[in-house]
Amino acid sequence: MEQPDLKDSQWSEIFKNLELSSLPIKYIHSIRVTFNDGKIWDVDIEKSRKRNVIVKIEDSLEKLFFEYQDTIKDIDFRLHTDKIKKDIQKKTNKFLNKRK
Questions:
Q1: SS (H, E, C) 18-44
Q2: N or C: which end of the chain has fewer CB within 10 A?
Q3: For residue 38, is it within any domain?
Q4: How many domains in the chain?
Q5: What is the pTM of this model?
Q6: Are 23 and 87 in contact (CB under 8 A)?
Q7: Angle of helix 8-16 versus helix 81-98 axis, rounded to 10
Q8: 27 within domain boundaries
Q9: Residue 67: φ, ψ to 5°
Q10: CA-to-CA distance for 77 and 36, rounded, in angstroms?
Q11: CA distances (Å), 71 to each of 30, 33, 63, in order?
Q12: Where are the alpha helices (DSSP H) in 1-100?
């Protein structure tokens, strides 16, 4: 028996209460870095993934965050919520079907 899809209101609640210590880069669309002086850098992860391997992107981000850590006010990760929803729903269905 196939499980029903979650409603948008249920996803909103899931994302609101989500705490992450790490997130696969495949779920990140872009990153907005806001600096103490008001400058904003938008890092297009989606475009970078087309040109580079994931490890290189992760290394570049790590260097960026380390180099500018004293001047960064905020980092906003823009997520591929549809991809996250799809993958979570698929894993949930698989888990629930195995328990039968």
A1: CCCCCCCHHHEEEEEEEECCCCEEEEE
A2: C
A3: yes
A4: 1
A5: 0.65
A6: no
A7: 100
A8: yes
A9: -65, -40
A10: 18
A11: 20, 10, 14
A12: 8-16, 45-51, 54-67, 81-98
